[in-house]
Amino acid sequence: MNVTELRATARRHLGPHFTRKDTWQSEFPVFVRGEGSYLIDTEGRRHLDGLAGLFCVNMGHGRADIAKAAAEQVGTLAYASNWGSAHPPSIEAARIIADLAPGDLGTTFFVNSGSEAVETALKFVRQYHRSQGAPERTKIISREMAYHGTTMGALSVTGLPKIKEPFGPLLPGIRHVPNTLGFTGDCGPADQLDCVRAIEAVILEEGPETVAAVFAEPVQNGRGALVPPEGYWPALRALCDKYGILLVSDEVICSFGRLGHFFGHGLTGVVPDLITFAKGSTSGYAPLGGVIVRERLVTELYDSPKGGVFTHGATWGGHPVSTAIAVANISAMRDEKVPEHVLSEGPKLHAALESLKDAHRCVKDVRGTGFFYAIELMADRDGGRELTDQESLTVLREVLPESFRRTGVILRGDDRGATMLMISPPLVADTDVLDELLHGVDGMLTDVEKAIQP
């Protein structure tokens, strides 16, 4: 089929994810190949994948070593479960993850996606407290505008009203507290910050004995790459320890090098009780997610008279092909020192994005770290004018999509709390690729300014 036929067939038979009807009726690209930091479409045009797929293709496209690991596993053992048995790829993947994870986070429950990882963490913390004689601990605290997934439990924890509204009522007992927007760097004693004091206030209001867990991302994706202020995560850890609450670090985006470390601990300095992961664990070469749990918690659940088994599982959890890919991917990431590359190049990328703020009146703020950034837009920074609702729609639905096509750089326009441009290149992007990315961003900002008057 030619590209016209492919699009027509897609419109008739393929259900798109988070895609408006008018976008699905447009001349959307159809990608047929990937090479390094680039996607190639049906017409042979190369597009710089500035979002690493969906924050996941950390090691880049077209890795022959990862493809070989997948092919060899398919030919050896295509399927076996982790229900009362095991297989070498899942065992090896769990071992490698335990070696890299902080503290005593040594047991991994594999699932298939980030949403499922959050769902698994929700179920674990509830069953854990029940096994320890505290069945009343069912409530969850998460942060406003945070995205934690789309399954019903994960969506309940998510703090984005727009994507929750069509599916209510959701899971009860979820409280959302202020995020760290506006708090950066050294803001003074962390336990005195409003964004921390609000968490303790909710704990006391709900009753500490009823709260199961606090969910937070090391760098929050929703609302635009919110890097926490100094001391914030130690303050979260102290609050959870004070009230017997489990701390869940949702690292579906942040783990496996995105921030320059294998896990968020490298940024926060804090060992959480559970870590959720997905995207970068396979660099998108196969579906895989998981929850890493402190070994003490697993032992206490299994050894309890009310425990004995974590009553949860999935047919594809720890799939041999997916975990074989994870082993190849994580091993390559470690051996090629990819997180170190991000730590080296990330500050340069951040500085270059900041320089675009000076060059463009439409840039309100640049936030992020490592290879994970958000540019927040406005109509005129010098005049203090924000975008109107209609201008925001114009930017997100018309200007930026056309800019992506024109520049050949794929990014993401984001409307979660503000009008933003999300940037998340493959972690293997070299200086030339990053220069091309920055040139594309510069052009996009120019297009926004041409479309929006001061």
Automatic annotation (TrEMBL):
<dbReference type="InterPro" id="IPR005814">
    <property type="entry name" value="Aminotrans_3"/>
</dbReference>
<keyword id="KW-0032">Aminotransferase</keyword>
<protein>
    <submittedName>
        <fullName>Aspartate aminotransferase family protein</fullName>
    </submittedName>
</protein>
<dbReference type="InterPro" id="IPR015424">
    <property type="entry name" value="PyrdxlP-dep_Trfase"/>
</dbReference>
<keyword id="KW-0045">Antibiotic biosynthesis</keyword>
<dbReference type="InterPro" id="IPR015421">
    <property type="entry name" value="PyrdxlP-dep_Trfase_major"/>
</dbReference>
<dbReference type="Pfam" id="PF00202">
    <property type="entry name" value="Aminotran_3"/>
</dbReference>
<keyword id="KW-0663">Pyridoxal phosphate</keyword>
<keyword id="KW-0808">Transferase</keyword>
<dbReference type="InterPro" id="IPR015422">
    <property type="entry name" value="PyrdxlP-dep_Trfase_small"/>
</dbReference>
<comment type="similarity">
    <text>Belongs to the class-III pyridoxal-phosphate-dependent aminotransferase family.</text>
</comment>
<dbReference type="GO" id="GO:0017000">
    <property type="term" value="P:antibiotic biosynthetic process"/>
</dbReference>
<dbReference type="GO" id="GO:0008483">
    <property type="term" value="F:transaminase activity"/>
</dbReference>
<dbReference type="GO" id="GO:0030170">
    <property type="term" value="F:pyridoxal phosphate binding"/>
</dbReference>
